[in-house]
C-alpha cells in the first residue's frame, strides 16, 4: 500500500496562519478543518482551527489567539484546543483537517490518542446514549 500525501491548506492561508501562530509561541501544532480545509468556503465562512500546546491554553491566551486570527483573516474564528477536544470532534479534525503547523510526531500522538479514545470510550458513550434514547422513547 502506498502512503497517501498529507493534504495541505492553500499556501497563502497557511502562511497567514503560521505568521499569526508565530506570535503565540505556546502553540506548537495547528490543523485547519471545516470549509476552508475542504476548499468549499464562502465569503461568510468561519475559520475552523484546532491548536495544540504542551499544556491546555488559558482563557486569555485563547481570546488573544482568536482576536489575532480574526484580524488577520477577516473571518470569525472557531478555535479548538486539542488538549480539551474529545470524540467525535477529534476524529473529524484528524480525518478531514490539514496540518498547518507542527511535526509528524505530534500528529502521530494525536492519532494514537484518538484511536485509544475510540477503543476505550466510544463503546461506553454509545451504550449511555442508547440507554437515554430508550428511556426517552419508552422502549
From TrEMBL:
Report domain Polymerase beta nucleotidyltransferase positions: 16-103
Q: Which InterPro entries does the UniProt record give? A: NT_sf, Polbeta, TA_antitoxin_MntA
**Could you tell me which Gene3D superfamilies the record lists for this protein?**
Beta Polymerase, domain 2
Q: How is this protein named in the record?
A: DNA polymerase beta domain protein region
Organism per entry: mine drainage metagenome
Lineage at the top is: unclassified sequences, metagenomes, ecological metagenomes
